[in-house]
Predict the structure.
Amino acid sequence: MQRRVVTAVLAAAALLVTAGCSSGDGGAPDDGKSAFPGLGSSTPAPSSSGSPTEKAPPAKGSVKVVRTVAEGLKTPWGLAPLPEGGLLVSSRDAGTIVRVDEKTGRKTELGEVPGVAPAGEGGLLGIALSPDYASDHMVYAYFTTASDNRIVRMLYDAKKPPGEQLGAPDTVFKGIPKGVIHNGGRIAFGPDKMLYAGAGETGDRGQAQDKKALGGKILRMTPDGDPAPGNPFGDSVVYSYGHRNVQGLAWDDKQRLWASEFGQDTWDELNQIKPGDNYGWPVVEGRGGDAKYHDPVAQWHTDDASPSGIAYAEGSIWMAGLKGERLWRIPLSGTKASAAPESFLKGEYGRLRTVVSAGGDKLWLTTSETDGRGSPAKGDDKILELKVS
């Protein structure tokens, strides 16, 4: 059931291709570089500059809510579709992972992740499946502890009783700075089978420009947590820097990496990520026009977005907005937006946290009304199935 009646539609869309957006989780308390520099010569690295033969999607798209998949989720954050069917969902505050039957909505708790210390914007955040999940059944998780943010992997055994299906966590990477705000948290395996993580600057702005610090970065590592081959700064997991709080990571059909980022008071951003590039924070928020810093592809005022998860489908990036309470579509042509971003579902389901491709023209979308900044209604939080174009 829809939460609110839509009262405005796309009022600012035409302005937003020239504009990037917002504060924390919704408020504070082309140069031809290879996309994957570690790929061997036997596997040609995809071009990151786009091709003039790439066909841009239509300027106008559409979104249809097909159904509500599940209800009654508490502080959902990460979402990982299983190849055998089902959706794994992390709860930020409970520190648990549940499996949702996408056909019936039935929820089964896998277990609680030990060591999670939820506070503010921290807790159990992003989850991802091992690139070898079919053989190793490993689930990766990014979470906040009492001392840091870290990434672990756990064996998922569906044959065990509910609540006991997660094996003991094996720490893959630790020491990512933690804070009450800006913990980042999104993790995803790229087409190169390397693990990428968005690490926030925790409110300590200086970290973002310090290439030796882990905060304010996109990190790239092997599945075992070592610096990935070909990373731009030698024996370091740092892949790009000058970020404030990256919470969305997705690759398009040409294997180019895109990231959404919270701004502070003025501009939220969608960036196309190049290894070793500086994305400007805290010197620049949004477009600065300075060649030292990589400008965003699109930007939004903070009230209109506060972006979290992103996904790629039907030639566009789809970006979930928290404070903006809407889903943004950014049609792409190469590494640029081919038309003005469009917003959908404005105010209908409240805060939107995570969007994931469900294959073809389908997306999974989670709401985030129980995260302390929303206004929960009956059934919150939800997973929605969307059909998009």
Remarks:
- Residues 148 and 289 are 35 Å apart (CA to CA).
- The domain at 13-38+47-388 is CATH 2.120.10.30 (Neuraminidase).
- The chain has one domain: 13-38+47-388.
- The longest strand covers residues 63-70.
